[in-house]
Structure formats: C-alpha cells, structure tokens
Amino acid sequence: MFDLRDLDVPVVAAPMAGGPSTPALVSAVSGAGGLGFLAAGYRTPDQVAAQVAEARRATSAPVGLNLFLVEPYAADPAALAAYRRALEPEARRHGVDLGTPRWDDDHREAKLDLVLDVRPDVVSFTFGCPGADVLARLRQHGVHAMVTVTTPAEAREAVRRGAASLAVQGPAAGGHRGRWDPDAAPDDTPLLDLLAEVVPAVDVPVVAAGGLVDAAGVEAALRLGAVAGQAGTAYLLADEAGTNPLHRAALTGPEPTGTRVTRAFTGRWARGLANRFMADHADAPAGYPHLHHLTAPLRAAAVAAGDVQVAHLWAGTGYRSARSAPAAEITRALAP
Ligand SMILES: Cc1cc2nc3c(=O)[nH]c(=O)nc-3n(C[C@H](O)[C@H](O)[C@H](O)COP(=O)(O)O)c2cc1C
Predict the structure, then answer these.
(1) Does residue 272 line the site of ligand 1, with CB under 6 A?
(2) Is 173's C-beta closer than 6 angstroms to any atom of ligand 1?
(3) How many other β-carbons are positioned within 10 Å of the β-carbon of residue 134?
(4) For the domain with range 4-70+105-243+321-334, which CATH number is right: 3.20.20.70, 2.30.42.10, 3.20.20.140, 3.40.50.300?
C-alpha cells in the first residue's frame, strides 16, 4: 500500500483540472521522486481512464488521481436569473450565448467505480469527503484515500471517516477552495497556523498546500509535521503542463496583477489573477456548478480571443515565482 512517507522527494504536484494536469506532468513528477496527480474534474470517466492508462504507460512510479466530491446544492433561482442578466452584455461582447446553469455531480459514482477498477496508487478528493463505507472500500482495494480539508473541523471529520491522509489547503492556494460547505465564507487562517492546529490533532500523514513555491516554503511546512508539500501554481508553467497559452502569458505578463478570491466564474470560491471580470462581478451568487455551466461559453470565448480581463486564470498568491522548466527540475527545486 502506498505510503506518502516513502516518497524520495516530499513534493506533490497538485491536481489541476481544466487542462494543466497531464499524464506527462504526472509521470515527470513521480519519476523525479515526488507524486503527480491527474485531475478528473470536468472530464468524462472514459477520458479519465485513458489518462490514467497513459500515465501508467509512462511511469512505474505512483500515480495520483483527484476527484471532485460535489454534494447536491439548490442555488437560488432568482439570484441565478439576476446574474445571467448581469452577464448578458459580457456574452454579447464576445458573441456567445451563456450556458444553462444547472447542478451535476461530475460523474461522481462512475468515477468512484473507475477508481476501484483502475486503482491509482492514491485518490484525493476535494469539495467534500466520501462516507466511511466508500473510504473503507478504497482501502480494501489498496487505494490510498487523501481528503482535502481547509479547517481543523474538516480534518477531524475526514480522519473519523477513515481518510488515509489529508491535504491541508491554506488560503494562498490557487484554484478552488476545497471547503466542504459551499456557503461558508473563505477562511483566511494562514497555512502554517492551520498545520500547527491540524497535525497534532490527527493520526494520519498531512500534506500541506497553498502558496508553496520554493524549498523554503516546503521546509516550513515539514517543520510543522507535514510529510510533503503540494504545489499547483509552481507547476503551471512546467513544460509538461497543459496550461493554455493565455494562462501562461498572463502569469508572466504585466497584467493582470495580484490575485483575488472570487466566485464569479463558477459559483464556488477560487483564487485567480485579479482581472476586470472579478471586480465587476464581486457580488456573484453562490451556486456550484451552476455558475460554472453559465459562464463556460463566455470563458471559452475569452480564452480564444486572448481576453485576460474575462478569462478565469487560476493562480495562487506565489504565482510570480512560477518558472518555465521541465517538471522534474521544478520538483527538485521545491525539495528542501
Ligand atoms: C489551475 C488550478 C487548478 C486546480 N484544480 C484542482 C483540482 O482539480 N482539484 C483539486 O483538488 N485542487 C485543485 N487545485 C488546487 C490545488 O490542489 C492546490 O490546493 C493549490 O494549487 C495549492 O496552492 P498553490 O497553487 O499556491 O500551489 C487547482 C489549483 C490550480 C492553480
């Protein structure tokens, strides 16, 4: 059974849905002694199966796979309608129709079945935690189950249900907050404070995530008892990453500058480069994945048109430290 403490290099490449995580990125990071993750989010089960197979062909080192755990959510229809009206001028400017806001669970059951079938070495979950029955089944099938948590209460509950390890995500992280309660306001407890509280309270290995862009950052997390540092933003410019060209250019270009937490793009709090769309829609309602579907055509058009002020450009606060390089080199540079 996989054990995080056996990694040669205590570095995990965070799962990044929407393109950046590729089988080539996973095999490069795991091949360098760290742990790479594929991201199942937004993909069909068939696409995920093909990616796992490709990563397995490319490396005999451990392969991780990340799943969204989306619980039913009843978004407010009046708030969704008002937000649609607010977005119509944006859609007209880009010559697209907005999508239909709707809930779906990202093929949750089919992807859980797939995990039991293809058996990645590690499966991680975000946005929620599977029940004790599912976690027990994963353990019986030899799959290490890691659960993303953002508060000490989530950490204790994930361990109580049987998580094999925790990914503790702090507020500097790029992309979505893994907070289980989609209505909870984003918590700003710094990662190191969160680790200081969580590590002594649980008896499973803890991986630290959020704002780790160099060896000093990972070392600080290890000093507090984490067994590895998980970095996403630091890999966005990796040669093997599938990050789109607009996202790559925005990370190194003059604008937008700084990052901000928003739910304007997907209805769930996420950190990205602070652009005009975030500022103009700062009061966007909750509703994931309703808003994801509503804004999807607009975001795709913005990427195609090279519009950095409308595209969603997920990034953590440390994005200025991201470098273009082979992923193995980035992995080694993150190692204390
Ligand atoms: C572009 C991008 C996409 C992400 N997608 C996912 C995802 O699919 N699943 C997940 O659990 N976390 C996702 N995250 C969050 C990461 O797992 C991790 O918490 C975060 O990258 C750590 O902070 P850092 O970006 O400062 O390194 C994503 C992050 C980014 C930047």
Answers:
(1) no
(2) yes
(3) 18
(4) 3.20.20.70
Q: What is the DSSP letter of 314?
A: B
Q: What does the alpha-carbon distance between residue 280 and residue 282 come to, in Å, rounded to a whole number?
A: 6
Cα–Cα distance, 62 to 21 (Å, whole number): 15
Q: Calculate the CA dihedral of residues 311, 313, 317, 318 and round it to 10 degrees.
A: -140
**pLDDT tens column, 99-141:** 999 999 999 999 999 999 999 999 999 999 999 999 999 999 9
Run of H or E residues at 294: helix 290-305
What's 70's DSSP letter? P
CA distances from 151 to 85, 179, 191 (A): 35, 8, 10
Ligand 1 atom nearest to CA at 317: 26
Q: Which residue has the tokens 């995080």?
A: 4
* Residue 92 burial class via C-beta count within 10 angstroms: exposed 0-12, middle 13-18, buried 19 and up: exposed
Interval 165-180: pLDDT, tens: 999 999 999 999 999 9
User: Residues 225-251: pLDDT tens digits?
Assistant: 999 999 999 999 999 999 999 999 999
Question: How far is C-alpha 114 from the geometric centre of its chain's CA atoms?
Answer: 20
Bridge partners of residue 65, in order along the sequence: 38, 123
Report residue 37 as tokens. 């993750």
d(CA 220, CA 229) in angstroms, rounded, equals 9
Spacing, Cα 279 to ligand 1 middle (Å): 22
Partnered with residue 150 across adjacent β-strands are none
Place of tokens 């925005």: 250
Give first-to-last CA distance, the chain, whole Å.
25
Which residues of the chain does CATH 3.20.20.70 include? 4-70+105-243+321-334
Which atom of ligand 1 has the smallest separation from the CA of 319? 26
Both tokens of 334, joined, read 């993150």
Contact 325, 240 (CB under 8 A): no
